Amino acid sequence: MKKWHTVQDYLVIVFCACLLALSYHIFVFPNEFAPSGLPGIATIIQHVFHFKVGYMTILINVPLVLLTYFIVDHRYAVLSATFAVVFSVVLLALDYVNLAPFEYHTTTGTSTILAPIAGGVISGFCYGMVMRRDSSTGGTDLLAALVHHVRPEMHIIWIVFAINAIVAALSYFVYDFKIEPVILCLIYCFLSSHVGDTMIKGFKEAVKFEIVTDKPEELSAELLKHMKHGVTEIPAVGGFTHSDKTLLICVVNRHQIVAFQRIIQQFPGSFAYLSSVKETMG
User: CA–CA separation, 46 vs 87, rounded Å?
Assistant: First the structure.
């Protein structure tokens, strides 16, 4: 079973690397803007010096992977190296494939802004899927992991933000002193980060109710009967009356909120509040 999970991890990483490389050729390169992270810097170098992103990605990731392997974590480094290698190889191989029918560009009067939107969503999807496999897309992630290992007090988000800010600022000077490539870069960065964060946290959103009551047995029985969810009981004491109470904790689906409220109304004196749960496990 462990070997099968490992195979799954590699399959997901290879698929995401191929998908991201394809999105670069379809959405990024034809529209002349730099994406987020170190690949964005590699894209700028390609635009100025015509040195391909595929080669630049390998050069950037080799030292980072080696440092990560010996300093941070072996498995994390190997999986990240797999993504980086597949991404670079596919990126270079697609140079010899006629993707003109699929490339999105503005020569037909379409909106340029749709390119970073589509590319950012795909990037975020790939990033989230890879991160859920305890891996990374290389580049910025490896650099952030190294810095965080040496300086744990430094928040990784600021490292990523600094690199993206540099890419956005350079875009103005590289792409003929135009503000549009800067805006496209920022859109790509925002969507990639937002979608990636959503993928990592998951889609199993729920609601957690915490109820203070003096009728725990009756209320628990109603919740179990109608909601089909388990209830956890914790002894509590009222701060004002100092009387014995019970704190009930129950996690339900969002569409069950109204039904939950109807049950609570049957027990006057009970006090409940809810909070969002990003993901449920187990």
Answer: 16
Distance CA 40, CA 24 (A): 11
**pLDDT tens readout for residues 250-272:** 888 777 888 888 888 888 888 88
In whole numbers, what is the pLDDT of the chain averaged over residues? 86
Contact 135, 69 (CB under 8 A): no
Q: Report, in angstroms and rounded to the nearest whole number, the Rg of the chain calculated over CA atoms.
A: 25
pTM of the shown model: 0.77
Which residue in 174, 225, 204 sits closest to 34, CA to CA?
174
Count CB neighbours of 184 within 10 A: 27
Any residues with CB less than 8 A from the CB of 36 and at least 6 apart, and which?
Answer: 120, 123, 140, 163, 164, 167, 185, 188, 189, 192, 193
Q: Which of 91, 94, 93, 114 is nearest to 104 (CA)?
A: 114
Residue from 90, 122, 100 nearest 23 by CA: 122
pLDDT tens profile 205-255: 778 889 898 888 888 888 888 877 788 888 888 777 778 888 889 888 777
> Are residues 34 and 44 in contact, defined by beta-carbon separation less than 8 angstroms?
yes
